[in-house]
Amino acid sequence: MKILLIQTAFLGDAVLTLPLLEKLSEKFPGSEIDVVSLPSTKEVFSLSPTVSNIIPFDKKGKEKSFTATLAFAFRLRKSNYDFVVSPHRSARSAIIAFLTGAPVRISFDTASLSFLYTEKDVYRKDYHEVKRNLSLISSGKELEQWKRIPRVVIPNGDRETVASILNSNSLKRLALIAPGSVWETKKYPAEYFREIAKHFIGKGFSVGLIGGKEDAELCREISDSGSGKILNFCGKFTIPQSVELMKKAEILITNDSAPTHLGVIAGTKVLTIYTSTVPEFGFYPYNEGSSYVSLDMDCKPCGIHGKTKCPLGHFNCGNNLKPETVIKKAEEMILKI
Q1: How far is CA 219 from the centre of its chain?
Q2: Residue 165 pLDDT more than 90?
Q3: How far apart are CA 101 and CA 27, in angstroms?
Q4: Is the pTM of this model over 0.90?
Q5: What is the C-alpha to C-alpha distance for residues 260 and 190, in angstroms, rounded to an integer?
Q6: pLDDT band at residue 337, thresholds of 50, 70 and 90?
Q7: Which residue from 3, 6, 89, 306 has the least number of CB within 10 angstroms?
Q8: 265-276, pLDDT tens digit by residue?
């Protein structure tokens, strides 16, 4: 059987699709499983041993136009897929799925142009995203076992790179902080992250900042104020290397963002800080030992993803969540500190 999975959403969404890929390989042993992804998330899917081929789709670049999307879909059609599953609910994904010509095409009932799919599952807002994705091909008791941590394979070269950097910095107990996010109202205040970093350094930890190149200025702001004691790894690691680094950490403290999900597949204790969003959306860390902090406020959540600025102008969901609260929760998670 030839299976195609379509996931062209954000980095975190891509990570949360890995358990579904693993389940597909179990339900259809011996199948060839291909993935359509963004160029920026290709590395995520390369971590999964279940994936046969990764087909990048540059929906914001060369394949942005409708004509280019059609051309892309017709190229896929030549592969004669038997089964297409799309956790991504965009109209573009529906069109691509339909034009593959696969006899079985599955997505959620809330997907745009859902009539183009042959089967539709109910999109459950009360489910974790991993469970939602698995519900596309599972149900009943099978779905009760949704808290699966997918197996990932880190290339030897990436493991050696991380080991070399850790050794050269003579790191002690490692705590990682990921202060960035695509959305401004998901970002916990930089000065609060700085206080958290200084606290753990005072407890004998090595503290490292991680993030993409887009987070470089933010990480620099936090690390520069740490008198050289806060290590700035921002933009220095690939996705596989970041996962390997997280494996070496005792805790990862992060916003409601992609590092939460990377930390989960790394098996790290993750503490997610919720500012304008809420864990009830279904994107909380679900591995053993992980947790989150979030204030109960009448004005939150103010959006599904977050916003460019606080609609009310005060950002109390972040400002009122003091570093002491985060530190207390983190220490409870680590225990022997």
Answers
A1: 19
A2: no
A3: 22
A4: yes
A5: 18
A6: very low
A7: 89
A8: 999 999 999 999
Q: What is the pLDDT of residues 198-254, one digit of tens each?
A: 999 999 999 999 998 899 999 999 987 756 689 999 999 999 999 999 999 999 999
Overall average pLDDT of the 117-137 stretch: 97
Nearest Cα neighbor of 203 from 13, 102, 334, 105 is 334
pLDDT at 85 (0 to 100): 98
Distance CA(33)–CA(21), nearest Å, equals 8
**Of the candidates 142, 143, 118, the residue with the CA atom closest to the CA atom of residue 130:** 143
Q: How far apart are the C-alpha atoms of 259 and 14, rounded to whole Å?
A: 12
Question: Residue for token digits 């887009």?
Answer: 214
Q: What is the set of domains in the chain, with CATH numbers?
A: 2-144 (3.40.50.2000), 157-334 (3.40.50.2000)
Average the pLDDT over 184-205 and give the result.
Answer: 94
